[in-house]
Amino acid sequence: ENEGTPVWQSALLFVTAALVIQGQIFLFSCALNLGVRHYVLPKDIAYQREFHPDYQAVQPVAYVPMLEEKFLTSGQLLHEPEDSSGLLVREGSYFDVWLKLSLPYSVKNEALFQVQVDLLALNSSSVFSSRKTCMMKRQNYLLRHVKLAVFAPLYLLGFLQDGEETLYFPVVDKFEQGKITNVGPTEVSQLRVTILSQKDRDPPEIYQAEAHILVKLNLLQHFLYHYPITSFVALSCALTVAMNVLLLGLIVVVLSAFLLGGFSLERTEETEDGLEGGEKGEGAPAPENDAAGEVDETETSGLTNVDLGGADEEVRGQANESSGEDVRDNTGPSWEPSTSMSEDMSEDTQSTSILKTGSKKFITEEQARRRA
């Protein structure tokens, strides 16, 4: 039991650490998921802007801002933003522009007319322009009165209105924000809507007018926007798995680098040890040679001293004999070494010189005699 307790403690500690790490990774994945959603998804996909054409102009015109509410006052542009941060449609996104016009049945509205929409950039330059032809439906007189009789209660209660028709039609389709080349700044900041009537006719009468700006979504944006809970869970799990794989790969790389680095370090140390051993092996015989040289020198010097000592004794003996002869005969000539003695000395000197040259360190005769 005592042996099994540390194992269980280690296993419990390992599981706890793994759960804590996975929890942190999942929380980080959720935060990253929120950041991705904020960056990828638009703030909204549909914007409604009511506008009122100015009938004081020859052709009634209205300006519809495509900016956030903080830049508007009563639906009109208060001040332009310095950059594209306040635009409703982000750069690179596609959008459509639809118009909704409510017109009464009148003689002026029976004629055909056109609606022109201009996309204006931040510098008020026109980026794109499009026109659509509009006309109200002409109802039969008898059919109109029958309809009024049938739906009279609804008309009386105010649920239906007579004499009004609503036109709803697209004007701009799949325009990409900020992607027109050779035009300059192309971020659309407002719309200019102009009512164009036929020649020599008055412009149509309009009860109410609205511009609808519809942002197009790609596949990922569509999934994130229309399925928020499912997309959040799926994306968080995918990010968690990806981060676990990345962490595992990082651990493998670090361990591989550590192991390969240790292996190469061991090989380097072995190589250095081998080089040092080789240098020591090459330098080892030198002391032996020196020792051998000292032995040879000692032996040679010993032999030299012995030979020289013997030669000196013979020389001294002969000198004593010569001195004895001189004492006996004072009138005789001075002592000179004999030929035989000279030969013996020359032989000893040769042997001494030979012995001296055989050693590694050369000595002179005087040094040899001093040693003797």
Describe the structure.
With 372 residues, the chain is an alpha+beta fold. It contains eight helices and ten strands. It has helices at 4-40, 141-150, 152-157, 219-226, 228-283, 285-328, 339-358, 365-371, and strands at residues 46-50, 61-65, 72-73, 76-77, 94-104, 113-121, 126-134, 164-176, 188-197, 208-215. The strands form three sheets. It has a four-stranded antiparallel β-sheet with strand order 1-10-5-8, with no helix packed on it. Strands 2-9-6-7 form a four-stranded antiparallel β-sheet, with no helix packed on it. The two termini are 89 Å apart. The relative contact order is 0.11. Residues 284-311 and 319-361 have low confidence and may be disordered.
Question: Main sheet?
Answer: 4 strands, antiparallel
Strand order of the largest sheet: 1-10-5-8
Number of strands: 10
Order of helices and strands: HEEEEEEEHHEEEHHHHH
- By secondary-structure content and strand pairing, the structural class works out as alpha+beta
The dominant shape is elongated
Terminal-residue CA separation? 89 Å
Report the helical percentage.
40-55%
Rg calc? 59 Å
Strand content: 15-25%
Number of helices: 8
The low-confidence runs, each spanning 5 or more residues with pLDDT under 50, are: 284-311, 319-361
Please identify the oligomeric state. single chain
